[in-house]
Amino acid sequence: MQKVDDWGILETSIAPFLIPIEKVAHVQPENSIEHALLVLVKSGYTSIPVLDTRFKLQGLISKAQILDSIIGLERIEPERLQEILVSSVMTTKIARVNSSEKLERVLSYSINHPFICVEDESGAFLGIITRSKLLAYLNGYFHEQKRRAKE
Ligand code: AMP
């Protein structure tokens, strides 16, 4: 197997991978889960960040969590969608990193998370990094390494 001797890739800045906050679909804790479900379905995403009015990250909410919260004893209870708040359904277990982190940390988080949230020093939400973007970059990187090794 070809030896990869440029471990510097792990020290790469994560800035180029960031999907900035203005392009990130999100909801607020006090929104109804009906609103969150609409945003999730319309955007096509499985899970999105929950940000408060000061744009601080409070949680993540997914379609699966919403559906789970309206399952009654014998039937699905869609009428509850308007009553239940995002804050009572969201998870607060979040894969989050500081914007100064390097690729190495984000890569290891991405094993178990389809996206990682990025914050600045003051805890303000900056955006997300998706696993698919990381894989696309690594795919290009290793193909370039292979091409160079053949030169
Ligand atoms: P992707 O790798 O593009 O398929 O995205 C993986 C997951 O990251 C999606 O299912 C969403 O949960 C999240 N995601 C990606 N892009 C966005 C976005 N612009 N806004 C909110 N969540 C996103």
Features:
single chain, 151 residues, alpha+beta, CBS-domain, two-stranded antiparallel sheet, 4 helices, 30% helix, elongated, binds adenosine monophosphate, CBS domain-containing protein, Diverse_CBS-Domain, CBS domain, CBS_CbpB, CBS_dom
Overview of the molecule:
- With 151 residues, the protein is α+β, with helices and mostly antiparallel strands.
- It has one domain: Roll (CBS-domain).
- Helices cover 30% and strands 18% of the residues.
- It contains 4 helices and 6 strands; from the N terminus they run βαββαβαββα.
- The protein has helices at 33-43, 63-69, 103-109, 131-150; strands at 19-20, 47-51, 57-62, 96-98, 115-119, 125-130.
- A 4-stranded mixed beta sheet has the order 1-6-5-4. Strands 2-3 form a two-stranded antiparallel sheet.
- Helix 3 links the parallel strand 4 and strand 5.
- The longest helix is centred in the last third of the chain and has 20 residues, at 131-150.
- The two termini are 17 Å apart.
- Bound molecules: adenosine monophosphate.
- Adenosine monophosphate binds at residues 19, 23-25, 45-48, 114-115, 128, 130-132.
- InterPro entries: CBS_CbpB, CBS_dom, Diverse_CBS-Domain.
- This is CBS domain-containing protein.
- Keywords: CBS domain.
- It holds the Pfam family CBS.
- Residues 18-79 form the CBS domain.
